[in-house]
User: What shape does this take?
Amino acid sequence: MFNRLKDNVVVITGASSGIGRATALRLADKGAYVVAAARRERALETLAGECEQRGTPALPVVCDVTDEDAVEDLADEALSHFGRVDAWVNNAAVSLFARFEEAPSDAYRQVIETNLFGYIHGARAAIRCFREQGYGNLVNVSSMLSRGGSPYVSAYAASKYAVNGLSRSLRQELTDSDIEVSVVMPASIDTPLFQQAANYTGRAVKPMDPVYAPEKVAHTITKVIKKPKPLTYVGNAGRMMGMLNNVSPPSYDKAMARQVENDHFQELPAPPQEGNLYEPQDHWARVDGGWGGKTGLLSNGTAKVAMAGLAMALPAMAYAWWSNGGASKLNKVRALLPG
Assistant: This one.
């Protein structure tokens, strides 16, 4: 059903910049019809023009995903214009950098409203469309931080943990249907999210190394639209940190805390700011954030920290396995082998 992208109708929220914009352009290159949604009208109109230059029509729709009625209207506009919705990509997100106890409560709530309830509203609208037509693919863009969290971004991490739980619950409810639910888990991505984030740390922020290009995430999202998959990492660093968290959560916690302090901040002061929590910032309507994102080799920074953490954790894990019956299990397997 989803084995091609040409002529598919795909709704993308958070489409005016970063991953969403890169995904819209890649889908247009593949011949898909894009319904691009975000809060920035001018940026959406420019994006629609770029999609049409690639030979496929695009529908720009101004939409704040925290408004459930607006998201339902987005679905109706897509149906009215194209007649169906083949896939829906929940991608709109904002971020807040602050120590937990210093984060303004209204700012914290706004992150949850956008990153979680925005996805809930999108899922409700998408599944309504999918139920009516008998099929569809919901793609939720999460984060590697949904596997282990991170200092200073507890609101963002909590929202992404919740997106994973929401996605899994929906997948279970929809088991007997032709509606798919996929989750994409980017690592550190070169987008304007960091320039637009609310920040109450007193320090300017940056993505942690290694930084991956947003086009790499867009490539993964298009693959998942064609071939749905429950969970897909983007970037080896995210995959390695996920492995480290699975093997040894304490090692993950220490590694992440150290890496954030060493590599998530610039040597520049930053005044308290709301960023784009409540109002969009038109001057950051672009795909990349200028952070030099690569296509993604396992390199320095977070990936090396994860490898070092795994190396330290594995001996302890092996000892624990051996002590809890691993030796007897191994002997049973040996007894079944010839010779």
